[in-house]
UniProtKB/TrEMBL annotation:
InterPro entries: DUF2316. Pfam families: DUF2316. This is DUF2316 family protein.
């Protein structure tokens, strides 16, 4: 699935807004997801090669926001049930298995 420029910017904004709601640092998020800070930056910029990785970050952020008793900012493009998108590997997303490497 490809996102247009407007969807890409909206998704970047939604990721950042939810990250801010978590109260966590980028180092904490990277550590929780067992990825490098470089890879996390690629995820926030949507320059990561894997289509699954942004969904893993999305789900993680939603979980952390809700655990903090707050309401997550809704996602417009990364929405719905990832199990229903043929182009995603739902098993990998459910297990939070980020792709290897920093890109």
């Amino acid at each position: 699935m490809s996102l247009n420029a407007q969807q890409m910017q909206a998704t970047r904004d939604e990721l950042q807004a939810n990250f801010a709601l978590t109260g966590l640092t980028k180092a904490q998020v990277a550590d929780d997801l067992a990825i490098s800070a470089t890879k996390l930056d690629h995820l926030f910029d949507l320059t990561q090669q894997s289509l699954n990785d942004p969904w893993i970050l999305r789900n993680y952020l939603i979980e952390k926001v809700e655990a903090g008793g707050k309401t997550p900012v809704p996602f417009t493009a990364l929405s719905g049930d990832w199990h229903r998108h043929w182009f995603l590997n739902s098993v990998v997303i459910d297990r939070r298995e980020m792709s290897a490497g920093d890109c």
